[in-house]
Write a structure and sequence with these properties.
Elements (H helix, E strand, L loop, with lengths): L11 H9 L10 E2 L11 H9 L14 H15 L10 E4 L2 H12 L7 E6 L4 H8 L3 E6 L15 H6 E7 L11 H14 L2 E5 L14 H7 L8 E6 H4 L8 E5 L1 H14 L5 H11 L3 H25 L9 E2 L7 H12 L1 E2 L1 E2 L17 E4 L4 H17 L1
Parallel strand pairs: 1-10, 3-4, 3-5, 5-6, 6-7
Antiparallel strand pairs: 2-8, 7-8, 9-12, 11-12
Enzyme class: transferase
Pfam families: Aminotran_1_2
GO molecular function, one term: succinyldiaminopimelate transaminase activity
Length: about 400
């Protein structure tokens, strides 16, 4: 087997299962706030497109996707991020959800012979690390602390590190922090990419779940700099969170056409084309904003209700975007999560499971990730049970 497989860490939910092993079962219904799987109903009109097109299961899909889907995506990017002249044929590539695309991207991009560094936020979506390992790169973890606004402090990165960097993963809005990189920060990163010749891969899957102001995107920052070729920049977007369609496995990569040409070649051999009826359903989803606004309103209602209960005892406020809370815990994060499961039958994810310890510090330690994905009444009950545990500690 590929020896790099041995470098992969257990996934956070494997660790969570081990943490809960042998616990007594509380006499209360389970409330899961640990996994970021959207629970709101998927749009009826998308489901109808799927039902109307099952006959297309008899067709092999093209890896590059239908021209109509690429055009729908280009149109959405143009409207959402104030772009102009997006080349749907060369600057857009549909993918089967951004998870598989993020993982595959590093393998297509990196040259092992370069001994490349892959920079990523810490805490982070675990796929970034696995992608670096399997692509022959070495991860460099950039701590996201309160002092740096819960995003990496890029000014603290040594120039020697930038010189060896071939790929930078950013996540804005952040998972799990919900923190957003500003347009000025994105532009500064683009300038660094030019100076040190690396690629920026921007995971923007939570961009449509925000509180008050739509977060800027990497391609938007490029356009404001007059870089309509989006050189060295690619973005990853998904219908999973935006449209409550995690099971559709539909997303896209967009940006630098030269990079996407190589990635398309890789994916053609990889055999990961999106089914045609999924593509048609995706067209419908990308072309509609009403369901997205309604979805966003549901999350904002849950944040308000939950923070009315937990804001004071956990000293936590709503993040700029996303559907996670990332509070500090009154005891260590594993103890907090274990007692919450045992005593209240509520699951949250210890922050250390989403982070790596570097120089003796783990930025996720003594924090937990709470995903407000359940229905409003369940989120409220979960918050009440969490408060009850806090009051007993």
């Amino acid at each position: 087997m590929n020896p790099d497989l041995e470098r992969l860490h257990p996934y956070p939910f494997e660790k969570l299962g081990a943490l809960f092993s042998g616990l007594p079962v509380a006499d209360k219904p389970h409330i899961a706030l640990s996994i970021g799987e959207p629970q709101h109903p998927s749009p009826d009109f998308v489901q109808q497109v799927l039902r109307d097109n099952t006959a297309l299961l008899s067709r092999y899909p093209a890896t590059a996707g239908l021209p109509e889907l690429r055009q729908a995506i280009a149109g959405w990017l143009t409207r959402r991020f104030k772009l102009s002249g997006v080349d749907a044929g060369r600057q857009v590539l549909p993918v089967n959800g951004t998870r598989e695309a993020l993982f595959a991207f590093a393998q297509a991009l990196l040259n092992r012979a370069d001994d490349p560094l892959v920079l990523m936020p810490n805490p982070f979506y675990q796929i970034y690390e696995g992608a670096a390992f399997l692509g022959g790169g070495e991860p460099v973890y950039l701590p996201c602390t309160a002092a740096s606004g819960l995003q990496p402090d890029f000014d603290a990165v040594d120039e020697a590190v930038w010189k060896r960097t071939r790929l930078l993963f950013i996540c804005s809005p952040g998972n799990p922090t919900g923190a957003v990189l500003s347009s000025a920060q994105l532009k500064a990163l683009i300038q660094l990419a030019d100076k040190f010749d690396f690629v920026i891969a921007s995971d923007e899957c939570y961009s449509e779940i925000y509180r008050d102001k739509a977060p800027p995107g990497l391609l938007q920052a490029c356009a404001e700099l007059g870089r309509h070729d989006y050189r060295r920049c690619v973005v990853f977007h998904s219908l999973s969170k935006r449209s409550n369609l995690p099971g559709l496995r539909s997303g896209f990569v967009a940006g630098d056409a030269d990079i996407l040409a190589g990635f398309l070649r890789y994916r053609t051999y990889h055999g990961c084309a999106m089914p045609v009826h999924h593509q048609l359903a995706s067209i419908a989803a990308w072309n509609d904003e009403a369901h997205v606004a309604a979805n966003r309103a549901l999350y904002n209602e849950k944040f308000k209700a939950v923070l009315d209960i937990l804001g004071e005892p956990l000293k936590v406020s709503a993040p700029d975007a996303g559907f996670y809370l990332w509070p500090k815990t009154p005891v260590d994060d594993e103890t907090f999560a274990r007692r919450l499961k045992a005593e209240e039958n509520v699951t949250v994810l210890p922050g250390r499971y989403l982070s790596r310890t570097v120089d003796g510090r783990n930025p996720g330690k003594n924090r937990v990730r709470m995903a407000l994905v359940a229905e409003l009444d369940q989120c409220i009950e979960g918050a009440q049970r969490i408060r009850a545990l806090i009051e007993r500690l």
